[in-house]
Amino acid sequence: MRVILMLFSALFFHSNVVVAQESVHEFTVSSISGDPVELSSYEGKVLLIVNTASKCGFTKQYKDLVALQKAYADQGVVVIGFPANNFGRQEPGSNQEIHQFCRDTYGVDFPMMEKVSVKGEDQHPLFRYLTQTDNPDFKGNVRWNFEKFVVGKDGKLLRRFRSMTNPNGDKMRKALDEALAQVVE
Question: Per-residue pLDDT tens for 137-151?
Answer without folding.
Answer: 888 999 999 999 999
